[in-house]
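Cross-posted from the bioinformatics board.
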Amino acid sequence: MKKVLFTSLLIMFVGTFTFANNLIMGVPSIGGSTVSFTIKWDNSWKVSAGPANWDAVWVFVKRQNCDQPNQNPWLHGQLAASGHSVTGTQLQVDLPTDQMGVFIRRNADGIGNINEATVTLTLSSPIGADNIGVYGIEMVNVPEGEFFIGDGNNPSSTNRINFTDGATDNPLRITAAIQAAGIGAATVYQKSGFGSIGSLPATFPLGYNSFYCMKYEITTGQYVSFLNSLTYNQQLRLQEDPNATPPSSPIGTVINARFGYRIEIKTPGISTTSLTPAIYGNDATDDNNFDQENDGIGLPVSIRVKDFLAFLDWAALRPMTEFEYEKASRGPLTPVLNEYSWGTTDLRQFNNYAVNNRFTSSEVLSGSGLGMANVGSNTLYRVGITATPISDRLNAGATYYGIMDMTGSVFERCIGGLAHNYAAFTTANGNGQITTDSFADVIGWPLSTEVNTYETYYPRRGGSCNRYEGIGISNRQWSNFSDGNRDFASGGRGVRSF
Ligand SMILES: [Ca+2]
Ligand SMILES: [Ca+2]
Ligand SMILES: [Ca+2]
Ligand SMILES: [Ca+2]
């Protein structure tokens, strides 16, 4: 039986110019090799001044041969080289060379709502009786250009380990020439040489070139969509405790419950007559009624490095580097000592405010102000909660480009750190598939076949809801931190070079 799934992986939309709004994608229709669906979202932008960037939706397709739908894996839906279109006059469809998905974005400068339009994508082979899933993730363009790493701190002070120009405490400007040649030895970008053991070559993304960055951290809704596309054995490898809580466990078995959200088994899998995967859902209210409006679907997830990399490979994205983290946060502006992702040292912690409409898509804090950040509260709130209809960058806590929660909420895992070699990392994206043991397998991603032992190979940036120290844009004090479970409010987001 043919079925179609559709998932707005992120249902809330906010940005520098904007307030919370829906990305809405309609139920797809299928014919021949094509998938068509409606799309609309509010408070979109494309601007030539200031950040000179735009927002977009990364859309990709999964397909499943349905002769044995309970057992067959969902495979990434490779797109054809042409045959992609969108109706109306506002939008355009951009196809990357690897044909893993498309970016839907404004075709001209403008700020405001996107009228409903119909997107048609052509797959690389006829759909036949396959089941089809369509997924969308909101992204922000980070344009090509120079920027600074480091904020001028003494890297030895309070163990900041921040980037410098090598010789002094001063920031270093990343230029086209540096990207083209590779930045080289760690002593070039850190005073004590605390960087990659191997020299970073031209193929290592230093952030000069443009890339797309997820507007928000990976959410519980996105993570559940990912889990629900896996085989039983893949799910087993991502369980809380594979021995105690296999996918065939009863309804309500907790898979990942941290800082307020609860991901549980909604429909148990089957392990007796066949291996039918479980269906997971969110149940923040813990009444075993899943995926309700107040079940915390828009909260960020706290996950291990293994989970994080598997999600990014599945979504055909990649991790960002530490250099790209600083670019995405600071933009081209001159560094401010100890600045946070909104560009100042203003800071208001969430715990000083009440929260209304808890766990819903309209969850909101009782107050606002400059530099709102979820650090030290030990609770997670919906991604982008600080953006309001009238918020500017400082009030929304947004980065220069309009990316949310880069300071606080969950840690942003990056490629980088010290005491290991990440010179082989490139702009290569995931290919939509993970291994049968649920590992990412992209060449160049550090140690992606080891279990839990590579947590220290992915430095964490920006602080989290359970850490208020070391949260500045350039602070690297969590570079060498080991935590093999999901207890530390560590998550992150994907990026993609076009
Ligand atoms: Ca429950
Ligand atoms: Ca519920
Ligand atoms: Ca964060
Ligand atoms: Ca892969």
